[in-house]
């Protein structure tokens, strides 16, 4: 039979020599000499493409059926992912993030300033992650919000049961009737974010799907894409109307978000500031403890569903 897709050969000795390198095809002479003789192992350009493509599309293939999909990789979504994936290594956790850069608003504190304020007792989560802070009594301050976000991102992505597709938007929810006749969220509908933003400029660009028994929505408050699931629940008739986020009140807002974190419709757990739009609770502004504690609670709720 004729191979339609040829195997890429290891860069040949000839090619290696042409590039001024010596080697026998598998063992290349490399040099980490920074004084003008730094030599890399040779590569065929297509090897780079295939190294990425096969991993990415294998990942998409496998995660088309996931145990949990987390929508949004802001402070709430990442806190949920960390607690969930660490405590249940048997569950496949798939994070979908619309932006190229995961982290949501948690690269900064408030008004584009870098320090991040976390009210006690949520500082315990920082200690668990190994993020240093200054203690101010009732609250602690991380010197730069990016220190929290970079640390939790690196820990989440290192967990073997977690994958993240960024630059990918959740465009819709899969909603099915369960055996009791109740409407149940059973997964998400995805598209590349660049496509999701261009549905008005091109003819139909159909999406893709990921099924999961539990979806955790952590898409933040209203914005270009925010409060996605809360709004979609309204347009599908599963929620009568949006509560709409109320004005800033730190003391009311933070406990309301954490204590309100729950399965808002069967199969869909909501966490973080998206809940303020769903429930009509206050915003807290630049204090992040509620995002961490709400993410952890969403993870616990998810585990409870899998254990029931
Ligand atoms: O890109 C969004 C962000 O990274 C992502 N997202 C939104 N819609 C999406 C969709 N598909 C995939 N349809 C989507 N991803 O969700 C992430 C939300 O992160 P965030 O930081 O905006 O929300 P959060 O709830 O994790 O943290 C909120 C932080 C805030 S806002 C606030 C206030 O305004 O008072 N206070 C705090 C602490």
Automatic annotation (TrEMBL):
<protein>
    <recommendedName>
        <fullName>Thiamine thiazole synthase</fullName>
        <ecNumber>2.4.2.60</ecNumber>
    </recommendedName>
</protein>
<dbReference type="InterPro" id="IPR036188">
    <property type="entry name" value="FAD/NAD-bd_sf"/>
</dbReference>
<keyword id="KW-0963">Cytoplasm</keyword>
<dbReference type="Pfam" id="PF01946">
    <property type="entry name" value="Thi4"/>
</dbReference>
<keyword id="KW-0784">Thiamine biosynthesis</keyword>
<feature type="binding site">
    <location>
        <position position="206"/>
    </location>
    <ligand>
        <name>substrate</name>
    </ligand>
</feature>
<comment type="similarity">
    <text>Belongs to the THI4 family.</text>
</comment>
<feature type="binding site">
    <location>
        <begin position="97"/>
        <end position="98"/>
    </location>
    <ligand>
        <name>substrate</name>
    </ligand>
</feature>
<feature type="binding site">
    <location>
        <position position="273"/>
    </location>
    <ligand>
        <name>substrate</name>
    </ligand>
</feature>
<dbReference type="GO" id="GO:0052837">
    <property type="term" value="P:thiazole biosynthetic process"/>
</dbReference>
<dbReference type="GO" id="GO:0009228">
    <property type="term" value="P:thiamine biosynthetic process"/>
</dbReference>
<feature type="modified residue" description="2,3-didehydroalanine (Cys)">
    <location>
        <position position="204"/>
    </location>
</feature>
<dbReference type="InterPro" id="IPR002922">
    <property type="entry name" value="Thi4_fam"/>
</dbReference>
<feature type="binding site">
    <location>
        <position position="76"/>
    </location>
    <ligand>
        <name>substrate</name>
    </ligand>
</feature>
<dbReference type="GO" id="GO:0160205">
    <property type="term" value="F:cysteine-dependent adenosine diphosphate thiazole synthase activity"/>
</dbReference>
<dbReference type="GO" id="GO:0005634">
    <property type="term" value="C:nucleus"/>
</dbReference>
<feature type="binding site">
    <location>
        <position position="170"/>
    </location>
    <ligand>
        <name>substrate</name>
    </ligand>
</feature>
<comment type="subunit">
    <text>Homooctamer.</text>
</comment>
<keyword id="KW-0808">Transferase</keyword>
<keyword id="KW-0539">Nucleus</keyword>
<dbReference type="GO" id="GO:0005506">
    <property type="term" value="F:iron ion binding"/>
</dbReference>
<keyword id="KW-0408">Iron</keyword>
<dbReference type="InterPro" id="IPR027495">
    <property type="entry name" value="Sti35"/>
</dbReference>
<feature type="binding site">
    <location>
        <begin position="283"/>
        <end position="285"/>
    </location>
    <ligand>
        <name>substrate</name>
    </ligand>
</feature>
<feature type="binding site">
    <location>
        <position position="221"/>
    </location>
    <ligand>
        <name>substrate</name>
    </ligand>
</feature>
<comment type="function">
    <text>Involved in biosynthesis of the thiamine precursor thiazole. Catalyzes the conversion of NAD and glycine to adenosine diphosphate 5-(2-hydroxyethyl)-4-methylthiazole-2-carboxylic acid (ADT), an adenylated thiazole intermediate. The reaction includes an iron-dependent sulfide transfer from a conserved cysteine residue of the protein to a thiazole intermediate. The enzyme can only undergo a single turnover, which suggests it is a suicide enzyme. May have additional roles in adaptation to various stress conditions and in DNA damage tolerance.</text>
</comment>
<keyword id="KW-0520">NAD</keyword>
<feature type="binding site">
    <location>
        <position position="105"/>
    </location>
    <ligand>
        <name>substrate</name>
    </ligand>
</feature>
<dbReference type="GO" id="GO:0005829">
    <property type="term" value="C:cytosol"/>
</dbReference>
<keyword id="KW-0479">Metal-binding</keyword>
């Amino acid at each position: 039979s004729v191979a339609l897709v040829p195997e890429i050969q290891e860069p040949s000795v000839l090619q290696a020599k042409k590039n001024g390198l010596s080697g026998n095809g598998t063992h290349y002479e490399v040099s980490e000499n920074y004084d003008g003789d730094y030599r890399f192992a040779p590569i065929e350009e297509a090897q780079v493409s295939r190294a990425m493509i096969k991993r990415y599309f294998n990942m998409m293939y496998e995660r088309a059926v996931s145990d949990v999909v987390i929508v949004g990789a802001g402070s709430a979504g990442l806190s949920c992912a960390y607690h969930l994936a660490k405590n249940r290594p048997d569950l496949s956790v798939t994070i979908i993030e619309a932006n190229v850069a995961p982290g949501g608003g948690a690269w900064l504190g408030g008004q584009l300033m870098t320090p991040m304020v976390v009210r006690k007792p949520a500082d315990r989560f920082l200690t668990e992650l190994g993020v240093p802070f200054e203690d101010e009594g009732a609250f602690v301050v991380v010197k730069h919000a990016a220190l929290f976000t970079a640390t939790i991102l690196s820990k989440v992505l290192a967990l073997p049961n977690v994958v993240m597709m960024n630059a990918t938007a959740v465009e819709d929810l899969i909603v099915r009737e369960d055996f009791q006749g109740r409407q149940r969220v059973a997964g998400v509908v995805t598209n590349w974010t660049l496509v999701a933003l261009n549905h008005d400029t091109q003819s139909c660009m159909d999406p893709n799907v990921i099924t999961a028994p539990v979806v955790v929505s952590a898409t933040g408050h209203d914005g270009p894409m925010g409060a996605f699931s809360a709004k979609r629940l309204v347009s599908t008739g599963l929620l009568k109307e949006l509560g709409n986020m109320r004005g800033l009140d730190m003391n009311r807002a933070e406990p309301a978000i954490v204590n309100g974190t729950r399965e808002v419709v069967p199969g869909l757990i909501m966490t973080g500031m998206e809940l303020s739009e769903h429930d009509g609770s206050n915003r807290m502004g630049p204090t992040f403890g509620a995002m961490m504690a709400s993410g952890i609670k969403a993870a616990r709720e998810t585990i409870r569903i899998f254990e029931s």
